[in-house]
Amino acid sequence: MTRIIDTITGKIAAQDPLHGKRLLKNLAVHDARYFALAEIFFRKYEAILRQEGKDIDYAIDCYLRMVEDVQAETIEFARSGRYTSSTFEEVNQRVYGRPETMQYYMHGLILSQFLWRHHYEMFDYYSTMLPRYTGGVLDYLEVGVGHGFYLSHACDALRPEASLTAVDISETSIALSRKFAGEGRIDYRLQDIFTFEAGKKYDLIVLGEVLEHVEQPLALLLRLRELLADEGVLFFTTPANAPAIDHLYLFRNVEEIRQLAESAGFRIGSEKVLPAEDVSWEMVEQMRIAVLYGAFLTKQREKHG
User: Fold this and answer.
1) What is the per-residue pLDDT for 304?
2) 202-208 and 139-143 as β-strands: parallel, antiparallel, unpaired?
3) Using an 8 Å Cβ cutoff, are 205 and 142 in contact?
4) Which CATH superfamily is domain 117-299 in?
């Protein structure tokens, strides 16, 4: 049987040969685990599409529209050195408040989970490291669930008695996550994390590519520190120099991200840095190529005099 990842990349290459060549180059470096996970992921996604009366061609169209957006944003970023939006209201008018835009953007991002090498490798890092931290986890919180892939993995990785809470301001994300991660053990909350009343502390909090979407990322990390148990762990990811239609906070380098985490009262236990392009680190810095950063954090110990 033909692998669905080959079908997807083949159809993309037929419509955009240059981008397709890049995707095929990425596939060549992956191992058997990648292809096994990709098959499970995309077969599940294909079933969700069928439930909505759509097919994989619809998803590919969405992906190519998203790629066009990223290319346009990248050109403008190279010219100006800034993202095209800097406030939540701007992004809300351009993206979040436009259901049609949100639909194609979200479906495009789903495909990027395995088509973009740095997106998959960050998940691989997270899933490989997670068992070190899940032993005592009874309360799990995810903020900004996106399409629900990380949430779905958490359901499989955590103990059966663990409870999971998912908080997001996007109806589109919540609806898609319900289909991808299921209902069962997960308590979905359509609300802002700053008004979210937890009533408890969480042993593990996941924040996947959210900081770049807010005006004050320090305030968000401080809020999550409040919600984190004293011995708990926060896993977060965020990119530097990654223009997109809904990115508004610009991290100019990885060190800025590290300093932000430390300013919020966290200690970095483990981290992963993944450039979006397969080039030297010197070229990444010189050309301001996008970098995806991820880290497992714990609370800094308070100093007593």
Assistant:
1) 44
2) parallel
3) yes
4) Vaccinia Virus protein VP39 (3.40.50.150)
Residues 6+ apart with CB under 8 A from 267: 297, 298, 299, 300
For 64-88, give one letter per residue: b (16+ CB within 10 A) or e: bebbebbeebbeebeeeeebbbeeb
Residue in the block written with tokens 């609300």: 191
Nearest to 219 by CA among 265, 173, 252, 269: 265
Q: For residue 277, is it left (φ>0), alpha (ψ between -120 and 50) or beta?
A: beta
**Structure tokens belonging to residue 6:** 């080959």
Whole-number Å distance between alpha carbons of 90 and 111: 26
Asked if 228 contacts 266 with a C-beta cutoff of 8 angstroms, the reply is no
Helix (H) or strand (E) holding 208: strand 202-208
Angle between helices 117-129 and 149-157 (to 10 degrees): 20
pLDDT score at 303: 53
The pLDDT value given to residue 305: 45
Q: Where in the chain is the domain with CATH 3.40.50.150?
A: 117-299
Smallest CA-to-CA distance from 118 within 273, 286, 283, 288 is with 273
List Cβ<8 Å contacts ≥24 apart for 166-174: 166/141, 166/142, 167/141, 167/142, 167/143, 167/191, 167/193, 167/196, 168/143, 168/144, 169/96, 170/96, 170/102, 172/99, 172/102, 172/103, 172/106, 173/106, 173/144, 173/145, 173/146, 173/147, 173/148, 174/145
User: For the chain (length 305 residues), average pLDDT per consecutive 10?
Assistant: 92 96 92 95 95 96 97 96 95 90 92 96 95 89 93 91 93 90 90 92 97 97 97 97 97 97 97 94 93 96 57
CA dihedral 15, 10, 117, 212 (to 10 degrees): 40
